[in-house]
Amino acid sequence: MMINIAKIIIEKLKYRFLVKIISLLLAVGLWFYVNEQRKPEKYITVPLKLQNIPHETAIASPFKNLILLKVKGNETLIQTLSARDFKATADLNGTSLGKNDVHVKVQYIKGKMKFKIAKVDPHVVEIHLDEMARREVPVSATIINSPAEGYLKTGEKIFPEYITLKGAKSLLETIDVARTKSIDIDGVTGSIYKEVEFDMPNDFVIPVDYKTAKVNIKIVKNYKAQVFKEIKIDVIKLQDNLKVKNIDDLVGEIKVYGPPARLKMLENENKFLYIDALDIKNEGRFDKPVQAKLPLRCTAVYINPSKIDIEIEEK
């Protein structure tokens, strides 16, 4: 009887001891978990580099080339970390044509790591490989905007006229021309020469033999001459107590050289010829020069008559 009671007491003690051990382990685990969650954290974006791309293959489509790291540790330490402290790589050794899921490897390159990399996103990248190919295509200059008013782009010369591109076969099949980066000719008043890089549609197709194109753009004056007849000659700055007696006889002709758009403006006007009467103080006849008020970039080739006789009388 006494032996049975002792056994029961021992079993109860063992059970309680086991419960306490389990409770202690749970408490310790919870403590570590809570402290881990409370640790300062920082997110860092690191560029991904591909390694060991198989011979005569090429990247055929865009991939996730920026890796987001979540690091945890001492606040002072992790605040000093930057992308320069890490290297993210994807090793393509053993991959084949088509779709490949490649694991991302992240390394801390500044020595012993005294913090934790809690997350790598993504930790696997999808890489599409295709056969490496070459293709010769013509070169085209990308020219934007227009030269100054009155000027005309008459053409351009490009060197080289053709270049060889290298990249995935499937990508090269979609490219018929190699375009340059934009050349802005806004407001230009003469021919220009530019050396510009090529504007590739993506990072996976590259020019082989030339890295830049030399572009000579010819821009010339687009002016013309136009004759305007039967233009009324206005008399300006005449004193209020005086008037022009022969006002109906004041008619002239002018030949103007300038941009076509400006000449078009003059067609709708009939008072751009004038006589300055500021120095006339009394009645009489005066031989005065005829002048023209013309738009910007326009000049008078001739004015007929260049002088005209006006008769002034009091009102």
Protein described:
- The chain has 315 residues and is an alpha+beta fold.
- It folds into three domains: 41-130, RNA Polymerase Alpha Subunit, Chain A, domain 2; 132-221, YbbR-like domain (RNA Polymerase Alpha Subunit, Chain A, domain 2, Beta Complex); 224-314, RNA Polymerase Alpha Subunit, Chain A, domain 2 (Beta Complex).
- It has four helices and 23 strands.
- Strands 1, 2, 3, 4, 5, 6, 7, 10, 11 and 14 form a ten-stranded mixed sheet that branches. It has a five-stranded mixed sheet with strand order 21-19-16-18-22.
- A hairpin with a 6-residue loop joins strand 4 (86-91) and strand 5 (98-108).
- The model has no long low-confidence stretch (mean pLDDT 88).
Could you list some keywords that capture this structure?
single chain; 315 residues; alpha+beta; RNA Polymerase Alpha Subunit, Chain A, domain 2; 3 domains; ten-stranded mixed β-sheet; 23 strands; 17% helix
Topology:
Elements: H1 2-38, E1 41-51, E2 57-59, E3 66-72, H2 75-78, E4 86-91, E5 98-108, E6 116-121, E7 124-140, E8 143-144, E9 151-159, E10 162-168, H3 169-172, E11 178-179, E12 183-184, E13 192-197, E14 206-207, E15 212-221, E16 224-236, E17 242-244, E18 251-258, H4 260-267, E19 273-276, E20 284-289, E21 291-292, E22 299-304, E23 307-314
Parallel strand pairs: 1-4, 7-11, 8-12, 16-19
Antiparallel strand pairs: 1-3, 2-7, 3-6, 4-5, 5-7, 7-10, 9-15, 10-14, 13-15, 16-18, 17-23, 18-22, 19-21, 20-23
